[in-house]
Write a structure and sequence with these properties.
- By secondary structure, the chain is of the alpha/beta class.
- The protein folds into three domains: 6-80, Archaeosine Trna-guanine Transglycosylase, Chain: A, domain 4; 121-252, Ribose 5-phosphate Isomerase B, Chain: A (3-Layer(aba) Sandwich), CATH 3.40.1400; 259-489.
- Helix content is 29%, strand content 19%.
- It is built from 15 helices and 23 strands.
- A seven-stranded parallel sheet has the order 19-20-18-17-21-22-23, sandwiched between helices. A four-stranded antiparallel sheet has the order 1-2-5-8, with no helix packed on it. It has a four-stranded parallel sheet with strand order 13-12-14-15, sandwiched between helices.
- A hairpin with a 2-residue loop joins strand 3 (27-28) and strand 4.
- Helix 1 (132-140) crosses helix 5.
- It is globular, with a radius of gyration of 24 Å.
- The model has no long low-confidence stretch (mean pLDDT 95).
Length: 506
Amino acid sequence: MAPPLFIRLNDSDGVVIARATLLPGTEVAGVTATSRIPAGHKVAVRAHDPGEPIRRYGQIIGFATQKIAPGEHVHVHNCAMGDFARDYAWGVDARPTAYVEKPAHFMGIRRPDGRVATRNYIGILTSVNCSAHVAQLVADAFRRGPFGGADPLADYPNVDGVVALTHKTGCGMTQNEPLALLRRTLGGYARHPNFAAVVVLGLGCEVNQLGGLVQEQKLAGRLRSMDIQEMGGTRKTVEAGIAFVREALADANKVHRESVAAAHLTVALQCGGSDGYSGITANPALGAASDLLVRHGGTVILSETPETYGAEHLLTRRATSREVGEKLVGLMRWWEDYTRREGAEMNANPSPGNKAGGLTTILEKSLGAMAKAGSTNLVDVVAYAEEVKAKGFVFMDTPGYDPVAATGQVAGGANLVCFTTGRGSVFGCKPAPSIKLATNTPMFRRMEEDMDVNCGTIADGDESVAVCGERIFELMLRVASGERTKSESFDFGADEFAPWTLGATM
């Protein structure tokens, strides 16, 4: 039997979601569509007066800006943001985690310090934009082409690649929080278990001095560093960098994979190019997979603070303590002040693509985005790029912009990324592999070379959220064991490195 034309998420909702494009006159949920309703968009199933809350997921997603009749399309033309009280109810829904008796395992790479890697890269980092080109020249000497050709790493089958991660800052910046944040990010990457060896290249006269970076991040003995000015220029630095990589490759190739517990997995949860199905299919399915990973002893990191705004009261209910919950609320207050200072507003997100896909306000987007974190306890809240030490569900403060958010999560220790998308984002995040989850079947079929999992099966009525979540969890284990993702087949992941830039450019 064909699934119904609409999706009702909660009995208290005043809207339902169109499963397919609805034409005027179509009967849906007891009302008649009065205009064309695109797939993934909302249709009112009861009347709303101006100023009345509009609910989806049983939660407020906005307020009617005009009278809305049953059957009308509900979107940016008649629904907008508004203030409303949140009941933070600190920890009332926190429950002991139901850990499994026999945790799952994957084939990981155990480092000498006991940490476990899912990939085995040689990393080239930069202290400043001025050394970016030199770093790229070093990496290019070992670059594998995504479409074939000679393989300069053919003699090193256990090495996944040599990658240069460059950025646009490091000098002309204020020397307080912006510098500390950049150094924390670079330090997190320098220590990342997915790097067998790392060299950091600087120019020599930048604000982010290599000596300060190494000392502040306690990196002595963990990496090699080179200043272009001290080395004698571009050619000599490139030659020295290539010599370092060749020396490191022999040792890096000696690794072998062994069976390790899923507790060694730390997964970054991301969504980008979201649509009206994101909070119905891929995000809840990833949430189910997140719950499974936590029950097996692992860790998941939710971030994108502006894309949790308006839904934070649902996370504070799951906090293991009031202190943890208050840290999350404190982030929301910081972001409100930050956007106010910059002459912006929190509802500047969703993006045009999100709105075309059916998302109307940041409240609606946030309620769908938080579903990625499943239902387990919120055990900690950490700063951008801060090392994640707790096991379970952790929240990290980041912007909503995907490359910047994922960069912070990987710096914090994520060794795998799961990325949901409804519009069709293409993304990678070296040195961590990135799994792409499609929210709807038409996009999955259109971009099947880029998507790893079709979660549109949920909207199609072919699969439950729980079953799709199990598929995602099993794929997590296989990818962590070395199975390549679609983004890896195209060699994504270097250009997406994007540390969060704060402060004035001087």
